[in-house]
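Fig. S4 source data, part A: sequence.
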Amino acid sequence: MKLKGKIIVILSYMRFDGLASTNLTIAKYLSNENAVYYVDHPYTWRDYFFSDKANSSFKCRKPFFSWFSKKVLMLEKLRLIIPSPVLPINWLPEGPVYRFFLKLNEKMIVRKIRAVLEKDGVTNYIFINSWNFHYPNIGRYLKADLYVYHCVDPLITPYDKKHGETSEKILVTESDVVICTSRALEREKKLLNRHTFFIPNAADLVLYYQKNRGKIVKHPAVNTIPYPRVGYIGAVERRLDFDLLYKVATKNSDMQFVFVGPVSHDVVPKWFFGQPNVHVIPAIRYEEVPACIASFDICIIPFKKDEVSDTIFPLKLFEYLGMGKPVVSTDFNLDLQEFTGNVVRFAACDIGFSDQLKQALINPQKGLEKRLHIAAQNTWQQRVSQFGDLVCECLDDKKMSI
């Protein structure tokens, strides 16, 4: 990787102790050869007052909430900056009043970042907004040597879209470079910023599998479920095609469909929890993911096809392949075929999905080495190297143009 010995400030939408994310993973890899400050997504005062004060997430942050704190919290090699709580303003309608209070919040975040950097004697650095479209002006206020927007997903939820659609346009337009995780996002953002590039997601489970092959113990929460097991790991929410899943689950009563992850109860239909061969397991720690995937016979990505699905490049794709599992997916994003070398079974409808499941179950071990080979070509080390090389080239180009 060309990007070495630099100072990088990353403002992320993903909190450092939340679910595994592209944002945090890239930050950790960059910190191996650079000094990386990871700015945690701020608590609002509402979060502060209504949080469980005994919760470990709150307790570890509380000492850093002070307006005068210039300390960082260390996570491996990452220097974590915990902003002071900000005003809860997302309830406001889009317009001048919202933008006024947003500016106040952003100034508070910038003040904390500058205080930490000044204490450490930092004057030159790269700033990366890692999909935190809620704070679109911070890069402009900081005046870093290079301003990068890392767009990892489309805006989907009403909460994010309410102000995010306007804010993300500001981010994309004002950034020196935009890096997207899907070709559809790249095409979309390129309309606003010609310096837009595509670097997809990746996963490292293939490294774990190769090191522990034949020794992986299956997950106890899954191991009590009868075979054959068709598994999914990730959020159970609006991206899933529940109509397709209902038809597939009822048609294949001999198969057990296992969903592991947090559930958005407001969008999941009632039948999902009453279907005899559908099993829902709460979210697990990331360290448990390999054992969980190892407990499945087949892994699935049953995303629905809609106006945003072709912008999604799911992390779980290479996690599944990295554990050597057959994968059946809806054809929600045809760009995925470019990176999977014909080892993933894609289906356009419930009938095709059922057929692909049945075919994969005939011999789940068939194609194992090919799947591992594809996963080995798509590790985070390789992806972050691409990311770093691009950032380094853009930094050099900007210096030459000044």
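Fig. S4 source data, part B ends here. The mean pLDDT is 96.
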